[in-house]
Specification:
single chain, Arc Repressor Mutant, subunit A, 3 domains, two-stranded antiparallel sheet
Length: about 325
């Protein structure tokens, strides 16, 4: 026949085991001593064996009581762990976050935001994926990701969009290029220059082509790529000049590459997207705050010495 006892019996037994006496157990539970004694007696009756023996004024647990107490403590340890996890989730100290970002921001801005997010949250896990904006939108809409960082404009049902501040484009040049000595460039300076541009039929390329046409410039496009990071890598290899957003260009600045502002107004629009119709994941909101803080703080374009002082190319 199955033993029948409840949580009240277990709490009384555990309190007596911890305190070492019925009086101490009653104090732990804020109950009367007779009430705790009756509960222990009822538990022994239902279990079919004694839990304590009286030796003078001492109450000594039986071997059966010791074995039962070990099992009960394991259960309570699990409950305490659940309570701790619940509080960690409440205060964003634990949990998991799924982030998708377009490749242009995967080299610097987004990783720094993730690093700032997890620094004070040692039990938080982040899954970070780099994808094109359209695939990110699909993943967020189907809740494969909690938040996405995309390039705008973007039209997709089942997502909510928060636009981020616009980001200026920079010219990215080899350090040994004739134009590298200038502090600022105009699109007219790039007339006939060997250019590495993003692939056609993208919104960014449409903006760039339109800006060149308005300036009466005919660039010499020698490489096309869908990835702005690859475009910067091609510049580092000495293939030509590219135009990308500040947040893509910044990680590539160094002895082989210089970054120069452009006089004409040219830039990218980025946004954060969330699954529509659902409460936003608290860690996603915290990540968005870190990303916005990074954007607001900005970064300094490393100063580059004049062309004559640039280190020789290997």
């Amino acid at each position: 026949m199955k033993s029948s006892f409840n949580l009240r019996h277990i709490e009384a037994f555990r309190a007596v085991m911890i305190a070492g006496s019925v009086v101490g157990g009653a104090q732990l539970l804020n109950l009367t001593q007779p009430g705790v004694s009756r509960t222990i007696g009822l538990l022994e009756l239902r279990l079919g064996y004694a839990l304590f023996e009286r030796r003078g004024r001492r109450l000594v647990p039986t071997p059966e009581a010791e074995a039962l107490h070990r099992e009960i403590e394991q259960v309570y340890s699990g409950i305490e762990r659940i309570a701790q996890v619940a509080q960690d989730i409440r205060f964003q100290r634990a949990g998991a976050l799924r982030v998708a970002t377009l490749p242009a921001l995967a080299q610097w801005l987004v990783p720094h935001a993730v690093a700032r997010l997890i620094a004070p949250r040692p039990h938080v896990r982040v899954f970070l994926q780099s994808l094109p904006s359209r695939q990110i939108a699909e993943g967020v809409a189907t809740r494969q990701f909690d938040i996405g960082v995309v390039e705008l404009p973007l039209a997709r049902p089942a997502i909510e969009i928060e636009e981020l501040p616009p980001v200026d484009y920079l010219a990215v040049l080899p350090a040994g290029h004739a134009l590298a000595s200038r502090k600022r460039l105009s699109l007219r300076d790039l007339d006939g220059a060997r250019m590495i541009l993003l692939s056609q039929h993208s919104y960014v390329r449409y903006q760039i082509d339109d800006a060149f046409q308005s300036a009466g410039v005919a660039p010499n496009v020698v490489v096309e790529t869908p990835s702005s990071s690859i475009a910067c890598a091609m510049v580092a290899a000495g293939a030509g000049i590219t135009l990308v957003s500040r947040w893509t260009a910044e990680p590539f600045a160094g002895p082989d590459i210089v970054l120069r502002p452009i006089k004409e107004k040219l830039g990218s629009r980025y946004g954060l997207i969330y699954p529509a119709g659902h409460a936003r994941q608290p860690l996603a909101v915290a990540f968005a705050a870190e990303l916005r803080a990074g954007l607001a703080g900005g970064t300094r374009i490393p100063s580059v010495p004049p062309l004559a002082a640039a280190p020789p190319r290997s």
